[in-house]
Amino acid sequence: MPDFGAELKRRRLSVGMSLTGLAASVHFTKGYLSKVENGKVRVNRDLAKACDQALGAGGELLALVAETTFTGRRSAGGIVGLPDSGRYFVGRDTELEALSALLRGRDDGRVGVVHGMAGAGKTALAVAAARRVADSFPDGCLFFDLRGHTPGAVELSPGEALHRLLRLLDVPADQLPADDDGLANLVRDQLRGRRMILVLDNVRSAEQIRGIVDGETPSRILVTSRGRLPALDDAWHFPVGVLPAADAVRLLRSVAGDRAPEDETVATEIVRHCGQLPLAVRIVAARFVAGGWTAARLRDRLADETTRLGALEDGERSVATAFAVSYEALPGDQRRLLGLLALHPAAAAETGTVEALAGLEAGEVDRLVDRLHDAHLVVRDERGYVELHDLMRTFAARHALPQVAPGERDVAVRRLVEHLVAMTVAADELAEPYRFRPATGLPAPSGVPFSDAEGALTWLGAQWPALADIVGTAARHELYDRCWQLAFVLRAFFFREKLFEPWIRTHECALAAARAAGDPSATGMILNNLGMAHLEAGRPDDAVRLHQQAQEQFALARDDRGTIDALSSLAWARLYRGEAEPALADLATVLTVYRRTGRTRNVVIALRGIALASAALDRFPEALAAAAEAAALAQLPVDRAMSANCEAWVHFRAGHSADAERCYHRAAEVADDAGSEYERARALTGLGNTAAARGDRATASRWWAEAAEYRVTLNPAVLGEAEYRNRPAFAE
Questions:
Q1: pLDDT tens across 317-331, in order?
Q2: pTM of the model
Q3: How far apart are CA 304 and CA 282, in angstroms?
Q4: For residues 27 and 193, is the Cβ–Cβ distance under 8 A?
Q5: What would you report as the CA-atom Rg of the chain, rounded to the nearest whole angstrom?
Q6: Considering only 3-17, 21-35, 323-337, 694-708, which range has the smallest mean pLDDT?
Q7: Closest Cα to residue 455, out of 678, 680, 681, 675?
């Protein structure tokens, strides 16, 4: 039987076709075809088929390849070398459909990068998508693990990757070029005429696969990586996040089988503590299969940050080890920043806060964050936040932060605390411009993300949980002044939103800090704020005790301002304890001082107290005069809403139904403008009370139902409208 190369040359010459013409017809290079004809390389089936068709050989050239050249070997065409995506591939229906569509898409989208953090299930998704579309790629589906992030393994070099691909494409070893450029040229040549899928898994860098992805081919190349690989300019990118909670529970149950937790709530808590990361969920499921753990005990291990990572390993797989591979590949400056991010009490930190933590210029921080973002160790979003996944944050605290010198950590904490104190003061100045704030000595922050009261309140609404935790951070690092200053400034927001638990928690911490600092004036301010919290929560006896202690501290400090404020707060506590007469006397005293010192907002507050105390004593003319003056002097929208509600309540108590209704309507409108759900719910409750008092139960029920939609708690111990609404005659 004739040699393929010699027969190819004979047939080409017999039809008068040049080597250049044949190269153009079969899409292989002239040089490569010359080597084929002279027996210097072994031909693969795809080339033989193309030459057979170009020369009209009727299958005779192809038969020579099938019978001689590759006897005993299977060509790459048609091979499906994809691993099993696993019987436990759960969820991802939307992602799988989208990724499959991209693989079937237009020819200029031949390279795709599936990227995500370690353990997110990138490989399983890529393999599942490749399997789904395999029928559209008749020349086969091949899978290569480049070992870019495999613990303990050496990643494949670019040359090794090219070499392995060419061997699977049936290029004999003795015909492979010795240099990387030659291998890359041959790969591009081999892929030109093929329609196949290559899954290049576990890729560390674009350079590792550059020789494979740069050619023109109808094939699809699907890359998986922990990095975003932005240097692959022509590739489309497909990010993979964690599983939705419901799918994470399904994965837990599918792997654990009948050993999975029966209680759905417990199962949900477990996957939440796993960060809904597929790798972590699988490891936990394997623990259930192995036995020896109750669901509640394992849940508790996962809930504790000190034992969480230890629970997420099974001897062969480990979340911490998977993260460590990514971490250890970082240069020192990126490792340092990742460790410092663990000092922030929330998963997400604003870019300005990250700059404060790092103590670096904005441009340098941007560069470092971008690199960590590209490595999927943090997420940088368009809002200006840098976020760590819960498990990554735990890893950073356990492994990255200890690598930062203790002295440097302390300095970073001080920068963080002082930055957030300054930011909170700036927000409070916009939201509460007439409120007293003790001097912090800190410069005003630059580049704040708010410019008016509404923006400041929005910022405080998003940041208060982290700010409340920072109070504790400041105390632990003995930054006592910053601890009580931050708590004090947060009080106005907590009062506005009726957030009693964080209000009390932060102030108890701040009280210990103020006492440790030996500052009686600061101690008095925090005691006074604590008393307000207990009063608003409906505990007037505790409030009276705390305000009296505040008076003692202000006296020690010879702080006249603090003394009069504590007397004002004590009067309110006595009012709600049912001691209207002494409360009225004390409020008259503080009103005189506030008028003399020009503290208009405090004048308004004292007038409202006088109105309520006078109404409680049935002294309605005095009550109405005080309420009307308070409404006229109120400077802030929320104060206007509170004053309108106060005036409405006095009219209601005096039996002036029409005036009460008018004032409550005005209060509801002003509260809406001020963004105060509490004062609006109070006004709507008052409208319901007014309707109920005149016997219109249907209208009353409508107003009460609307008030209930705001889901705020109106405490009958401190709010007349709530006390009246809760009377047995109106119980539903």
A1: 999 999 999 999 999
A2: 0.82
A3: 19
A4: yes
A5: 37
A6: 21-35
A7: 675
